[in-house]
Design goal:
heterodimer, A: 257 residues, mainly alpha, 2 domains, two-stranded antiparallel ribbon, 2 strands, 70% helix, flat, B: 481 residues, alpha/beta, Rossmann fold, 6-stranded mixed β-sheet, 14 helices, globular
Chain lengths: 257, 481
């Protein structure tokens, strides 16, 4: 008896909404990041991103862990602003001058940075590139460009894996990965870059052959296995995005903090 | 035209010469393959097997430039008058490395990719996708991300995605190269069903013929671009008589094995799940340890643990402090760094010209000293990487599937080098799916696959046969085909 093979699936939260709805949500998040000065709204947006990550089954703790460098950079931005903006009411005169405007400016900049990057990261996590490419094709973008996106993403894990293997091969051969001098840096790049490039080019040839062998490019248009229909998840995400847009408008009009 | 002639493949006086080569890849090849036939094409590396597949699939010369004379006809239509895309509706080509032909990020999308390109209606695409997934028994993987699949799963996916195109002719280039014996049996069993039930023509290129025996194929043997032998599929293939058997003369036992030089004590290791636990094993100097087991059983991980590239979850690995380790990876290009073959063999400028010349001669790479290593054939690259790994006289040599894509001549060369390591008291740890070779060469065998079985080859193979895994025993021990 030939065994049947097993697997799981992603079908929670934002995964259930289409790329269009998720794109709209990203747009609303970017509006919070760029179009409103409200610090409260930005804090709410960051909190919403974390909640949506958890609801989508991606693991909030893992998500925050992968944003570690973004968070550290945001804290640095805040500190620099707080220490360098001298206008406003002085809150701490010595040894450095901290003002209320400095704190608000720092918080605004750090939160903007966090909102934009965390929401973009969440978008990349929950949107299936295949579906995104299909959405682009529906928007009359030639399907070859849509597949360029998919193939680019297909190569990311490949290059990561190949680089790790080549580095291990160097280690086993006793090749130092030193980058202390320009010469050793050039050598390290050549020793890593060339084998990975060769792998990549070989892979590109094979994939091109595989695509041609399955009639890619035979017709000007192609059909699709699934027609992404409007779902309640799409409706919920669009409603959330519109609500956020309204809040952005309200915060600007009402001068919310 | 009779139904039997429906998708006959007719190859007439076919010659192919690639640019910058002096020898033809194919030299006046004549062959007719009837609809529903199963044909195995075999022969040494560089004999033209893959070129023959690429010609039938229409990739040469339209995608791969070459000078071509003669003709290939499918269903009486000349292939060179059809575009590769048009041929693809009749001929499906599964390339050697399944990972290298996956274009999308989800299993279901990958299978749908071809039918979508044919502009089929969504219902028809859906039905083809479901049927192809079912034919390869991977329905449960439908929503999986393609980069997360194992080698065996990718192989099945590659075949399923071609089946969805409904080709009448299936070309498979070394489909069992990365599969364990049971995975290879499963794949060929599925393919045999397709040929029997749907009269699809199968052309299978293989170095290792043992996995093919159950298919009872007609055999075509190529050498230097020419067909040098044919054997009828109606008779069982006697590979020994045909001189094609993947059997190897048994290595003579070591007279006085050295002291214990590599000891694994209660090792537990895994990634997202445990691969093995409580693994204990001792290998003495002058011994070859053969490691076998199913895909995903932890064979490569064991090599990485021994090499120090991974740390065990629990347990200890003991080897002499000063032990020099040579690791030969599965794909030679990962271990090639220098601009010329000579520089590669000079090992960081440490070897003299005389030593480099001797290494070139030993690796049968004379005359290629100034050649860029990556321009060498796969067999030459394998000899080069083994030579560089052995150049420092390592006490411990680790090899991960070194025989994939290698012909008998190269395999014999590799074996001769490994036996020399053993002779001078070194340890060789060899991972391979070639059970006959492991059986003939190893002083100890380790089976990793759910459970770990270690011991003398006879003991391990007897246990495997008794536990219902005859495909992991050598053919001479009665291993199944």
């Amino acid at each position: 008896m030939i065994p049947r093979l097993k697997a799981g699936a992603h079908d929670r939260g934002l995964h259930r909404a289409g790329p269009g709805a998720n794109l709209l949500l990203l747009g609303a998040m970017l509006a919070v990041g760029f179009a409103t000065p409200s610090v409260v709204l930005k804090i709410a947006a960051v909190a919403l991103v974390v909640v949506l990550t958890a609801v989508s089954g991606e693991g909030a703790r893992r998500f925050l862990g992968s944003l570690r460098f973004v968070i550290v950079f945001a804290v640095l931005l805040f500190a620099v602003q707080a220490l360098t903006v001298g206008e406003g009411n002085v809150l701490l005169p010595t040894p450095v001058r901290i003002t209320d405007r400095g704190l608000i400016a720092g918080a605004g900049m750090a939160l903007r940075f966090l909102v934009v990057l965390s929401s973009s990261f969440l978008f990349a996590l929950v949107v299936d590139p295949d579906r995104l490419a299909r959405s682009l094709i529906r928007l009359r973008i030639p399907y070859r460009y849509g597949y360029l996106l998919i193939l680019s993403l297909r190569f990311v894990p490949f290059f990561r894996r190949e680089t790790a293997i080549v580095r291990e091969a160097q280690r086993m051969r006793g090749i130092e990965a030193s980058v202390r001098t320009p010469r050793s840096l050039a050598r390290a790049i050549r020793f890593t870059f060339v084998p990975v490039l060769v792998s990549g080019l070989t892979r590109v040839d094979s994939i091109a052959m595989s695509m041609t062998g399955r009639c890619f490019g035979l017709h000007r248009r192609r059909t699709a296995l699934t027609d992404d229909r409007w779902t309640t998840a799409d409706g919920a995400v669009v409603a959330l995005s519109l609500a956020m847009a309204l809040l952005v408008w309200g915060s600007r009009a009402g001068g919310w903090p | 035209m009779s139904s039997n002639e429906g998708h006959r493949l007719a190859i007439r006086d076919l010659s192919v010469l690639y640019p910058d080569r002096t020898d033809r890849a194919l030299d006046r090849v004549d062959e007719t393959i009837e609809e529903g036939e199963i044909v195995a094409v075999t022969g040494p590396s560089g004999c033209g097997k893959s070129t023959l597949c690429r010609m039938i699939a229409g990739f040469v010369p339209s995608l791969v430039p070459a000078e071509v004379s003669g003709e290939v006809r499918i269903a009486d239509r000349l292939v060179d008058r059809m575009s590769p895309e048009a041929i693809a509706g009749r001929v499906g080509f599964v390339q050697q490395d399944p990972d290298a032909q996956i274009c999308t990020l989800r299993v279901r999308q990958e299978v749908a990719f071809g039918p979508e390109n044919l502009c089929l209606p969504a219902d028809e695409i859906r039905s083809r996708v479901e049927a192809s997934l079912a034919a390869m028994r991977i329905e449960a993987l439908a929503e999986r991300s393609t980069p997360t699949l194992s080698g065996g799963e990718k192989q099945r996916l590659a075949v399923a995605s071609i089946l969805a195109m409904h080709p009448r002719v299936l070309l498979l280039d070394e489909p069992s190269a990365s599969l364990d014996p049971e995975g290879a049996r499963d794949l060929f069993s599925l393919l045999k069903g397709l040929s029997r039930d749907e009269r699809r023509t199968l052309v299978v290129v293989e170095h290792r013929l043992r996995p093919l025996l159950g298919l009872r194929p007609r055999l075509v043997v190529l050498d230097r671009g020419r067909i040098v032998a044919r054997r009828d599929g109606r008779e069982p293939i006697d590979l020994v008589a045909a001189g094609l058997r993947d059997a190897w003369p048994a290595a003579r036992p070591v007279r006085r094995p050295g002291p214990a030089a590599l000891a694994l004590e209660r090792i537990a290791f895994g990634y997202d799940r445990p691969l093995f636990s409580g693994l204990s094993l001792t290998v003495r100097g002058g011994e070859i340890l053969g490691v076998i087991g199913p895909n995903g059983g932890g064979k490569t991980s064991l090599l990485r643990l021994i090499a120090g590239l991974e740390r065990p979850w629990t347990g200890t690995i003991r080897r002499p402090e000063s032990a020099r380790v040579g690791f030969v990876f599965q794909h030679p290009h990962h271990q090639i760094f220098e601009r010329t073959v000579a520089r590669e063999l000079r090992i960081d400028g440490q070897a003299s010209d005389r030593e480099v010349a001797a290494r070139l001669a030993t690796a049968r790479l004379d005359g290629l000293a100034a050649a860029p290593p990556l321009s060498l054939s796969l067999g030459e690259q394998r000899r080069l990487t083994l030579m560089t790994a052995l150049a420092r006289d390592p006490d411990l040599v680790l090899l991960d599937e070194p025989f994939i894509g290698q012909d008998r001549r190269n395999v014999v060369w590799i074996l001769s080098r490994l036996l020399r390591v053993r002779h001078r008291g070194g340890i060789v740890v060899l991972v391979s799916h070639d059970i006959d070779l492991i059986g003939a060469l190893s002083d100890r065998v380790l089976f990793l696959g759910g459970e770990a079985i270690a011991g003398r080859p006879g003991e391990v193979f007897a246990q495997l046969a008794a536990s219902g895994r005859p495909l992991f025993t050598p053919l001479l021990n009665g291993g199944g085909s």
